[in-house]
Amino acid sequence: MTGIIEKPRHSETSNNSYATRPNDVSTLGVVDFADCDQCSQYPNRWSNIREHISAPVAEFMGAFILCLLGCGGNCQANLSANKNVSASPAGNAVTSNLSWAIGLSLGVWVSANYSGGHVNPAVTIALATVRGFPWKKVPIYILAQLLGALCGAGVAYATYFRAIDIVEGGSNIRTVAVTGNLFATYAADYLPSVSAFFAEFIGSAMLLTAIFMATDKRNGPAPPGIVPLAIFFVILGISSALGMDTGAALNPARDLGPRILTAMVGYGRGVFNFRNQYWLWCPILGPIFGMLMAAFFYDAMLYRGSDSITNKPSEEAERHHLHSCARRNKPRGVAEIV
After folding, report:
1. Which tens digits make up the pLDDT trace of 142-164?
2. How many Cβ atoms from other residues are within 10 Å of residue 235's Cβ?
3. Three-state secondary structure call for residue 310
4. How far is CA 201 from its chain centroid?
5. What is the number of other CB atoms lying within 10 angstroms of the CB of residue 32?
6. Contact call for residues 77 and 165 (beta carbons, < 8 A)
7. What sign does the CA torsion over 240, 246, 252, 255 have?
8. What CA–CA distance (Å, rounded) separates 238 from 241?
């Protein structure tokens, strides 16, 4: 035993005595500040900065993943149909719909724990209007979602740049009808403007209703992690049933971000001049109004949570609670001051 455990010299003990104390960091390893109420939750400067930027960064990442996989799925399915690009098609409408469904479910999964997993300006506006989400956070959320969608579409465009050149007939040729609709959404030629707006309106209303149902604690409640899976099936169903008319944008950022990208890379003003500013009144206003309507309807008819404006107590109910319920719950032996 004396050969294994050797007593240290006096000088070494005096110099390193602090390293053998029970509470020293070097002996305990990593210190977790989260379990201590008396210590700061920000152990360093970066953790303090991260606390303020994590929510918009999460929204950026969610929208980035959505448009990277969604636009990438559109490009693969459509560009591979050209014989000069691929000997056989590498996708179809089903794989495109799956790409958007997987992209949104993964985007929500990545961002849900840090920002709530909106990934959609229409969802953010609906939650701020009906569920008490802070309005001061709405602009930064929408900006993060828009930038994430633009960057995600940009990466997809860079990935399929050469294939787009082949399909278009040259690197200096970019047309909305051939490849521009792989990124932003455009209504079918046979579809009148009113029908295009209604398609986005009803599809977006169905999406928000599904989100509210999946997150309603009285409606299940859903097991942890099931919400992204539910959103996957909802998006797959909506895009498969209602996607032919307008492409089922259902998300202002998902359409505007890639649309800005196409304007930047050479598709020109046609991406915004299509059908007298179609980009504004259909894929932006359609989802916003559709989700607002669905949010008010769901909360007015079904939802019981106190975070909804439809369940805000009246003055009479608050007065009754203060004078009756609070007095009933007062601990015994407490003298009432008159």
Report:
1. 999 999 999 999 999 999 999 99
2. 27
3. helix
4. 19
5. 10
6. no
7. positive
8. 5
